[in-house]
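Sample intake sheet
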Amino acid sequence: MLSYFINWNPSPEIFTIPGIDWPVRWYGLSWALAFIGCHFFMNRIFKAEGRTDKQLDTLTLYIVIATVLGARIGHCLFYDFAYYSRHPLDILKVYEGGLASHGGAIGILIGMWLYCRKTKESWIWLFDRLVVVVPFASFMIRFGNLMNSEIVGRPTDVSWAFIFHQVDDLPRHPTQLYESLFYIFLFILFYTLWKYKRNDFGKGFMFGLFCVLMFTFRFLMEFLKENQEAFENALPINMGQILSIPFVAIGIYMMFRSKKETTHLPQPQNTL
């Protein structure tokens, strides 16, 4: 075994609350920081564009509930339907783990649709703003996966490979780290686009661009990951890739739609 591989064996628990024997876990902290960070940056966006704190608080409530429900139900449906169809009450055991990012994405879409229906907010405007902060949340969640030594990559001999001792003794791609770094890049990119270029794009362009970049990367990254469930081994591509394709297609459609909308806007006339 080469010595330059990174030995990775952190405890998933940070500490235990005295008296009640309640462990505080890195994964739970990552989710909490994801929501706190998203609320902070969305607050800046809402204030800059004339929305109120009350509107943001309502949106946050919708998004938190929709994300957790979507991620949990997505995991149960997409990755272990056979088990949860026989044990439906176990769906409620979120504390045992099992959250799917694609399910979370679908949950966010549904939650935002319900929010816009109630508040009469423009859903395209909101989608173009929410994609600014979603990469930050994704970064935090993948950090939690890394601390849990889960969603590991395939075996490799690259010098930066991690040996996830809670999984086995093989050097593997640290795919959680790859994704975390990419999501930070996306966050910086979309925050910059929103701050300096948001009025240069047609409605829906940023949402479409996000879907294309995020889920194309996710599709490609799955080639470096171990399949999460045994049934995926019989598929030509795994479940994460299958679920990514519709999001990429939606993104391409939204980008073309925004471009068509932009070309129909009245153009300023030159004056002598």
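Comment: Residues 24-262 form one domain. The chain has a mean pLDDT of 87.
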